[in-house]
């Protein structure tokens, strides 16, 4: 069902410091910060040869990553995103196997303009999984 690893998302308390570390210390190609108010985050995309890393920082009130950063003040891996061909079929198959899809189960348009869903971390070895239809 799942295909390529689309991205790893890391919540960071200091976006500039994290961007500098990826650019200067790790020598990665780091993009400019992009505000995504409808997702409650500012994102920096880091393009790697085989996948992406996304640095996430809370934006506005009620950001979905605010609670995560409270629990993990120095930051941490927030979710990983796998690609699927057909998100509705993937959802139906996962729900039939007992996995919990977050929210009302309807795919939402994610940060890349494509339909996404999130799966409950307690059902997947403590990892929040995002599925993105590509
Ligand atoms: Co994501």
Describe the structure.
The protein is α+β, with helices and mostly antiparallel strands and 134 residues long. The chain has helices at 15-25, 66-71, 87-96, and strands spanning 5-11, 29-30, 34-36, 41-47, 52-58, 76-84, 108-109, 115-119, 129-133. Strands 1, 2, 3, 4, 5, 6, 7, 8 and 9 form a 9-stranded mixed β-sheet that branches. The mean pLDDT is 96.
Major sheet description: 9 strands, mixed
Number of strands: 9
Classify the oligomer: single chain
Count of alpha and pi helical runs: 3
Ends: how far apart?
A: 13 Å
H and E string = EHEEEEHEHEEE
For the CA atoms, what is the radius of gyration?
15 Å
Low-confidence stretches: none
Supply database-style keywords.
binds cobalt (II) ion; alpha+beta; 134 residues; 9-stranded mixed sheet; 3 helices
What does the secondary structure layout of this molecule look like, with pairings?
Elements: E1 5-11, H1 15-25, E2 29-30, E3 34-36, E4 41-47, E5 52-58, H2 66-71, E6 76-84, H3 87-96, E7 108-109, E8 115-119, E9 129-133
Parallel strand pairs: 1-5, 6-9
Antiparallel strand pairs: 1-6, 2-4, 3-4, 4-5, 7-8, 8-9
Bound molecules: cobalt (II) ion (CO).
Task: Give a brief rundown of this model.
By secondary structure, this protein is an alpha+beta fold.
């Amino acid at each position: 069902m799942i295909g390529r690893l689309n991205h790893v998302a890391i919540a960071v308390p200091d976006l500039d410091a994290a961007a500098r570390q990826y650019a200067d210390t790790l020598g990665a190609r780091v993009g400019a910060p992009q505000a995504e108010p409808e997702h409650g985050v500012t994102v920096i995309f880091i393009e790697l040869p085989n996948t992406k890393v996304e640095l996430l920082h809370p934006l506005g009130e009620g950001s979905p990553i605010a609670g995560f950063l409270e629990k993990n003040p120095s930051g941490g891996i927030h979710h990983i995103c796998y690609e699927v061909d057909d998100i509705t079929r993937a959802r139906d198959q996962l729900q039939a196997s007992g996995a919990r899809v977050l929210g009302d189960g309807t795919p939402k348009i994610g940060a890349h303009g494509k339909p996404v869903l999130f799966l409950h971390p307690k059902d997947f070895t403590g990892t929040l999984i995002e599925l993105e239809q590509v």
